Amino acid sequence: MATPSITVTETPLVLYTLRRADDALILGHRLSEWCGHAPMLEQDMALSNIALDLIGQARALYAYAAEVEGKDNNEDKLAYLRDVRQYRNLLLVERPNGDFAQTMVRQLFYSAFADLYWRGMTRSIDATLAAIAAKSEKESAYHLRHAGEWIIRLGDGTDESHARAQGAIDDLWAFTGEMFCVDDAERGLIDAGVAVDPLMLMPEWLVTVTDVVREATLVLPENDWMQQGGRDGRHSEHLGHLLSELQYMQRSFPGASW
Amino acid sequence: MVAAATSDHDLWQRAWDAAASVTDPEIPVLTIADLGVLREVVVRSDGAVDVAVTPTYSGCPAMSAIAFDVAVALECAGFPAATIRTVLSPAWTTDWMSEAGRAKLRTYGIAPPLPASSRRALFGVERVDCPQCGSGDTELLSEFGSTSCKALWRCKACREPFDYFKCH
Fold first, then answer.
1. What are the C-alpha distances in Å from B24 to residues A75, A140, B62, B151?
2. Which of A55, A73, B45, B83 is 20 to 30 A removed from A33 (C-alpha atoms)?
3. Taking an 8 Å Cβ-Cβ cutoff, which residues of chain A contact chain B?
């Protein structure tokens, strides 16, 4: 019999931490799907290495969420035993890998944000979040450089790579707005100096992304309608499929370890 | 009193030396003391040992192996059931790597990390000297290498590829 889902008491700080942990885990899982399939060996290693960084960030954040919640949960339970509606990640990170251009555009959008976000979070009054941020910002900067160089290579490459990179930007653009949304739960943490206000980061994020896209001879869409819902557990159909693979072992063989 | 204090210190030194002798499973020439991963060793009044280690890269899989090896090293040195804690703050940086550690890395064929101040430029160019021949005429082959802490470079003078320990 399958292991039932856990319940989580989502105080603002628990919810906040889970959202960042879920972003890192789901994007890390997506990138790990490339392992053995990337277009060249160096990129196979790169995407797996980035996945490893993100899953490491997720582990630290889940461990902290469990500690703050102070119940019977732990990092494994939070990752393996919450159902799709309990996941709080951005819709952007659950987007399917698609082709290499789709993966790298998703990575550019997220890493350009994460780089700024974690750099800001190093000044959080919460010592644990600040320490996690101090590692994550360096890793994010490295991921951003990698993604930026690839977007330029793809955009300023062949007609085919240009078209695919532009298509990926057009497809994923509507998922970027959610990164900058703030709800009441987070507003309190921002006011208290625990969290960073993501909206303040938007101008610099836009400069970074625009610079890369322009150098790549690509363009950002005019359309500013943005999709959201992930932060509240309203996900696309893709996340359920991802979780069924990620959680299969623990759901079918409760407590399995090796 | 003096004797007791000396003996406490000797005990602590023995515990520290045991923990500090543990090497990185991926880079066996470096000890966790060289890396700056070993943060603190405390011998409590009941003789139990409490060790604090700090993770390097967020996802480095060597950390669990290191914690296990520290417990084994202490057990062998006569400190059973040591407690290994992970401390996150302040966050580890390659700037903590000792000079001895950097020299060992270079001798082992891995270019040691550059100072952290050079990491930020988005498309900045780093200059990494070849650990084999010392030439600065080198090029990046792959930003990501065989472990999360390394990148793959090549020396254009001696034509040898080499690992570079990325700054963090």
1. 25, 24, 7, 17
2. A73
3. 42, 45-46, 48-57, 59-60, 127-128, 130-132, 134-136, 138-139, 141-142, 144-146, 148-149, 208
